[in-house]
Amino acid sequence: MRSKFDEQLEKLNTELIKMGSLCEAAISNSIKALTEGDFKPAKMAINIDMDIDRKEKTIENLCLRLLLQQQPVAKDLRQISSALKMITDMERIGDQAADIAEIVMLENITSSDNTTHIDEMAEATIKMVTDSVDAFVKQDLELAREVIAYDDIVDNLFDEVKKELVHTCTVDKKKSEYAIDMLLIAKYFERIGDHATNIAEWVEYSITGVHKGEADL
Predict the structure, then answer these.
(1) How far apart are CA 155 and CA 99, in angstroms?
(2) d(CA 129, CA 62)
(3) What number does CATH give the domain 2-215?
(4) Positions in the chain whose pLDDT score sits under 50
(5) What is the pTM of this model?
(6) Closest listed residue to residue 140, CA positions, set 149, 150, 131, 128
(7) Distance between CA atoms of 58 and 72, rounded to whole angstroms?
(8) Exposed (0-12), middle (13-18) or buried (19+): which is 53, by Cβ within 10 Å?
(9) Which has the closest alpha carbon to 84: 15, 147, 135?
(10) Which DSSP symbol is given to 114?
(11) Domain extents for the chain?
(12) What is the spatial distance between Cα 79 and Cα 63, in angstroms, rounded to a whole number?
C-alpha cells in the first residue's frame, strides 16, 4: 500500500514540475513579446495559460484521489494539501503572464532601453517560480526560504521601474499612456513574485508544519 502511495506522490511531483515549467514558459513568452514587439510569443503565452488551467485540474484531481483513497496523515497530508494551495498560485501566475501578453497585443507596445528593469523582473520571477517548485519536490527548506527572501529583489526592481517611468513622463508627456501600460505590466510581474513567494511558504509548511501567516500571529 505504501509503495502505491509513494508512486502517486512521485506522479504528483512530476505534474507539479510540468506545471511549473508551463508557468516559466508563459512568463518567458510574455517578456519576449514585450521586448521584441512580437505577437507570436504573446499568443503563445495566452495558449500556455490555457494549458496551465488544464494542468491545475489534473493535479487537483490527483490530490483529491490521494486524500480520499489513501487517507494520508501528518507530513504526507501536509504535502498534498500544500500542493493544492500551490497550484492555485501557479494558475494565477499563468493568468498574469497572459494579461501581460494581452496588453502587448492590444496596445501594440514594446519595452524601451529606459525600462530595462522590467526585463530583470521577468527573469527574477522565473527564477522564483522554478526554485519554489524545486524546493517542494526536493523538500528543500533552505531553498524555499531563499525564494521568500528573493521577493525583496523583485520589489526593489519594481521601485526602479516606477522611477524610470516617472522620468519618462517628465521628459515626454506624450508617453504617459505608454508609461501607464508599462507600470501595469511591471505590477503583474511584481504579483507573479508574490505568488511564487506564496508557493515557497506552502513548501515551508509542508516541511515544518508551520505556515508563515500562522507564525506571524
Answers:
(1) 19
(2) 21
(3) 1.20.58.220
(4) 217
(5) 0.91
(6) 131
(7) 19
(8) middle
(9) 15
(10) G
(11) 2-215
(12) 10
